[in-house]
């Protein structure tokens, strides 16, 4: 059985983690399938945005503890599936929207943080419980959480292993919006359709520029942003967008 399910809704590619008996834990096979599905949607010229979600009750309970328990240092080091997961997500040009219902724990919280936008159901819970297993976060928890919610709250989660709920995650800035659990996927698909309705290359440029802000100092980041802003002048969609505004009509994007 496949560890993920994929479907298309208009211009949106939807990926669901699908290991219900293991609470969607990140097995080596799941990570491979996930990265392949993301790349497939990224290459598909009819898809403008991607949704990554779990089930109605769990996003992902983290690394597959049963599988990880059997790995020696050399096996874990050589498989390097954490790097494959991180590189897989960060190489996607199209926006990836994480839709979180239920638990997002350990690698599940880290996977959520690799997404570009997070929308959460009101029963969502986020945590980095690795400390309780005798290890530490291994897929960005110690790095991305501090950028998302600040040092004290990140330390609180990582050192105590305690979870935060959806409203705390929203106040802290980890998620963009919290909605009733049964509405969050529909809301997210609508937002994804909206994003996919804009010019694909412009959306990709905006995503790239925002993500660079986490890597660069301010002057270099501003320079990078200006270069991409000016590059957008070369697009036919730039001419179309400005022309449509001045002509008081809706733009017709051609993704060029
Ligand atoms: C493998 C898992 C799992 C996991 C749950 N299961 N989490 N299997 N890997 N991460 C399995 C359980 O063994 C059980 O299988 C079934 O899913 C249901 O789980 P229960 O514990 O019975 O459910 P519940 O009481 O509702 O508790 C839910 C839970 C708890 C709070 C999410 O399962 C839990 O604490 N899970 C572990 C979360 C965790 O520590 N994550 C960090 C992993 S390390 P059986 O066969 O008994 O029915 C990590 C490192 C990051 O992520 C590195 C980067 C990827």
Kindly summarize this structure in a few lines.
The chain is of the alpha/beta class. 48% of the residues lie in helices and 16% in strands. The protein contains 12 helices and 10 strands.
Topology overview:
Layout: E1 4-9, E2 12-17, H1 28-43, E3 49-53, E4 58-60, H2 65-69, H3 73-79, H4 81-90, E5 96-100, E6 103-105, H5 107-114, E7 117-121, E8 125-127, H6 141-149, H7 151-160, E9 164-165, H8 166-172, E10 177-179, H9 184-196, H10 200-212, H11 218-231, H12 236-246
Parallel strand pairs: 2-3, 3-5, 4-6, 5-7, 6-8, 7-10
Antiparallel strand pairs: 1-2, 8-9
Helix pairs in contact: 1-4, 5-6, 6-7, 10-11
Bound molecules: hexanoyl-coenzyme A.
Hexanoyl-coenzyme A binds at residues 22-23, 25-26, 61-66, 82, 103, 105-107, 110, 129-130, 133, 137-139.
Question: Can you walk me through this structure?
Answer:
- It is built from 12 helices and 10 strands.
- A hairpin with a 2-residue loop joins strand 1 and strand 2 (12-17).
- Helix 1 (28-43) packs parallel to helix 4 (81-90), helix 5 (107-114) packs across helix 6 (141-149) and helix 6 crosses helix 7.
- By secondary structure, the protein is α/β, with parallel strands linked by helices.
- The protein folds into 2 domains: 4-196, 2-enoyl-CoA Hydratase, Chain A, domain 1; 200-247, Lyase 2-enoyl-coa Hydratase, Chain  A, domain 2 (Orthogonal Bundle), CATH 1.10.12.
- It is globular.
- The model has no long low-confidence stretch (mean pLDDT 97).
- The strands form 2 sheets. The protein has a 6-stranded mixed β-sheet, sandwiched between helices.
């Amino acid at each position: 059985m496949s560890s993920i399910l994929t479907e298309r809704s208009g211009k949106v590619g939807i990926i669901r983690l699908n290991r219900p008996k293991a609470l969607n834990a990140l097995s080596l096979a799941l990570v491979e399938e996930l990265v392949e599905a993301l790349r497939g949607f990224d290459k598909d010229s009819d898809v403008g945005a991607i949704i990554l979600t779990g089930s109605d009750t769990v996003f992902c309970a983290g690394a597959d503890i049963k599988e990880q328990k059997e790995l020696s240092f050399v096996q874990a080091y050589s498989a390097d599936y954490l790097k494959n997961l991180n590189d897989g997500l960060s190489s996607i040009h199209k926006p990836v929207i994480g839709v979180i219902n239920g638990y997002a724990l350990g690698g599940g919280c880290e996977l959520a943080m690799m997404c570009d936008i997070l929308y959460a159901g009101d029963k969502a819970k986020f945590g980095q419980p690795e400390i309780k297993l005798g290890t530490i976060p291994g897929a960005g928890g110690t790095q991305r959480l501090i950028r998302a919610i600040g040092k004290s709250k990140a330390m609180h989660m990582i050192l105590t292993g305690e979870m935060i709920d959806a409203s705390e995650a929203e106040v802290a800035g980890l998620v963009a919006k919290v909605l009733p659990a049964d509405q969050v996927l529909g809301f997210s698909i609508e937002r994804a359709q909206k994003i996919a309705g804009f010019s694909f290359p412009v959306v990709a440029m905006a995503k790239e520029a925002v993500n660079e802000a986490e890597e660069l100092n301010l002057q270099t980041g501003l320079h990078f942003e200006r270069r991409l802003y000016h590059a957008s002048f070369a697009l036919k969609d730039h001419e179309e967008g400005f022309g449509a505004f001045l002509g008081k009509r809706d733009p017709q994007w051609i993704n060029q």
